[in-house]
Amino acid sequence: MKKAYQYFPLVCLLLLLNGCSLAYKGTGAIMINYAEDQGVPYMLAADDVALTCSMVESFTPFLLSFSQVTTPPDQLAILFYLMAGNCTEFKAQNEELRYLRAIYAKNSIEAQDARIAQQRLLALAAQRQFKGYQYLTKAFVEPGAECPRFSSDNEELYWLLGLVNGIQAILNDVASGGSANVPMDIAVKVGRGAACLDNEKWWGMPEAIQAAIWMTLPGSYPADKKPEKSLQHAVQIGLEKGIRTPQLLAAQVYLGRGNTEQVKNVIREYKNLKQTAISETYQSLNQVSNRQIQAISDKLWTTATGKRTPLGKVGSFWDDPETTVEMIDIDELL
User: Fold this and answer.
1) Are residues 45 and 116 in the same domain?
2) What angle do CA 45, 46, 50 make, to 5 degrees?
3) 245-256 vs 227-241: helix axis angle to the nearest 10?
4) Residues 251 and 278 grouped into a single domain
5) Of 141 and 10, which is predicted with more confidence?
6) Are residue 282 and residue 140 in the same domain, yes or no?
7) Whether 120 and 250 share a structural domain
8) Does some domain include residue 203?
9) Which of 180, 215, 245 is the endpoint of a domain?
């Protein structure tokens, strides 16, 4: 029979491994609590989208790795994957402008290469945002059936952001040619899930989401609803509340329908946003929307003129009577 001291190394190893596990668990809980209490409010109030992108893209894998040792931060993942998807969209938008400039210059090889790069990035954006939607279903319930019981405004916010993940994932997947394989049936679920939130409280976004889906899927709305009127109403609520996200969603919907004049009308309201306490709290959402709306404006300008929106001209267009497009003498650049 072995003596007790012979088991001493094994006992020490087990204690060491158990101690590491407890340390990881404690560290994970601290990190997640910090992210929820301090990191997220700071990020939502930030005004530098590029720095936010750097933070989200580098910090997300690290934060979610603690799912192995403590309560999974599913709600945080909703926000982080939404932002990470947005950051990838920005890169895709630059490739789209490269494509449009190549088309304008009749450079077919450059245009083909830019389109491929754009679609790859849009597929990645769709994948990230679809993951954010999947985390929504883990943190709460699958949208479309019964509404979850929210215990705080933060939970309502995460629910809203998860729905935005769903609709953006669909839009980006369609734009990428369907390479991300996002299930299209989540559109109806997202629309039903939006009804779980108070429209006035959340800046018109629930109504904007529903209207966007109704306008994208003909015949999917109740007979007593007028989708375009609902969308315009949501945009006005957002502008009054100081949040631009409904305005962005409207521009994306009209762009997808090929209604350029309506897109222009939405962007012309760019300067009508009121500055409120809400817009300060969620400044990052507005900065992302600003980037997205400017990208849509750049697309229109580049298609028509070969170059993006001039500085300070978001909300104006090349064919407006009062707009003067500055021309540069190429000889001055040589």
Assistant:
1) yes
2) 150
3) 150
4) yes
5) 141
6) no
7) no
8) yes
9) 180
d(CA 119, CA 122): 5
Helix axes 186-194, 205-216, angle to 10 degrees: 150
How many angstroms separate the Cα of 221 from the Cα of each of 70, 98, 188, 210?
42, 38, 10, 9
Taking alpha carbons only, the member of 296, 202, 308, 316 closest to residue 248 is 296
Q: Report H helices in 217-316.
A: 227-241, 245-256, 260-268, 277-281, 283-305
Instruction: Establish if 311 belongs to a structural domain.
Output: no
Q: Give which of 44, 19, 41, 11 is closest to 245, Cα–Cα.
A: 44
My answer on whether 168 and 32 are in the same domain is: yes
- Give yes or no: residues 232 and 134 share one domain: no
Tens of pLDDT, residues 159-218:
999 999 999 999 999 999 999 999 999 999 999 999 999 999 999 999 999 999 999 887
Encoded amino acid at 147, one letter? C
Rounded distance between C-alpha atoms, residue 49 and residue 292, angstroms: 11
Reduced to 3 states (helix: H, G, I; strand: E, B; else coil), residue 314 is: strand
In this structure, what token pair is assigned to residue 329? 């003498």
- Can you give the pLDDT at residue 11? 46
Task: Return the structure tokens found at 84.
Answer: 């990470």
Contact 124, 101 (CB under 8 A): no
pTM score: 0.87
Query: What's the sign of the alpha-carbon dihedral 112, 117, 118, 123?
Result: positive
- Name the amino acid, one letter, at 136: L
For residue 15, the model assigns a pLDDT of 46
Structure tokens at 292: 């997205």
Does 151 lie in the same domain as 202? Answer: no
Q: How many domains does the chain have?
A: 2
At 126, the pLDDT band (50, 70, 90 cuts) reads very high
Residue 223 belongs to domain spanning: 198-304
Residue from 333, 40, 307, 334 nearest 325 by CA: 307
- A 10 A CB-CB count for 285 gives 24
